[in-house]
């Protein structure tokens, strides 16, 4: 048994669960961020264009999109494997887009 492979698989599953679960049960930091945005930005002129750098599975975008309903979101992350989770909850449309950050840097 290769311990490195087992550990890597465990971490992959743990990270996958973290990102998937974020849609059902937002973390305290996500709740605090949504409250801050709601109290600070909702009085400004809409619509916004926003980017979430390090978006992972898109959990923050999901919850923030309920606060800033007119905002167009771009999720940027190097771990594009989590984009599958994001796209289950936030289908890519004009409102939601996900970009592989590493790939974007390579093309510049």
Q: Could you characterize what this model shows?
A:
By secondary structure, this protein is an alpha/beta fold. The protein has a single domain, classed as Rossmann fold, CATH 3.40.50. It has helices at residues 3-24, 28-40, 59-67, 83-89, 101-106, and strands at 49-53, 72-77, 96-100. The longest helix has 22 residues, at 3-24. Helices cover 53% and strands 15% of the residues. The model has no long low-confidence stretch (mean pLDDT 83). The chain has a three-stranded parallel sheet with strand order 1-2-3.
Strand percentage: 5-15%
User: What is the CATH fold-level name?
Assistant: Rossmann fold
- The SSE string, one letter per element, is HHEHEHEH
CATH architecture: 3-Layer(aba) Sandwich
The largest sheet, given as strand count, sense and whether it forms a barrel, is: 3 strands, parallel
Shape: globular
* Strand arrangement across the biggest beta sheet: 1-2-3
At the fourth level of CATH, the homologous superfamily is: Vaccinia Virus protein VP39
Helical coverage, percent range: 40-55%
Pick out the low-confidence regions: none
Structural class: alpha/beta
Cα distance spanning the termini? 42 Å
Radius of gyration: 15 Å
Strand tally is: 3
By CATH reckoning, the class would read: Alpha Beta
Number of domains: 1
Number of helices: 5
pLDDT average, as an integer?
A: 83
């Amino acid at each position: 048994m290769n311990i490195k492979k087992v550990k890597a698989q465990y971490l992959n599953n743990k990270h996958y669960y973290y990102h998937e679960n974020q849609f059902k049960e937002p973390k305290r930091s996500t709740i605090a961020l949504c409250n801050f945005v709601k109290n600070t930005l909702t009085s400004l002129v809409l619509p916004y264009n926003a980017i979430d750098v390090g978006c992972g599975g898109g959990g923050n975008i999901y919850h923030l999109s309920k606060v800033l309903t007119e905002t167009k979101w771009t999720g940027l992350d190097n771990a594009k494997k989590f984009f599958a989770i994001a796209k289950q909850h936030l289908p890519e449309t004009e409102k939601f887009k996900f970009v592989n950050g590493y790939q974007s840097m390579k093309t510049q």
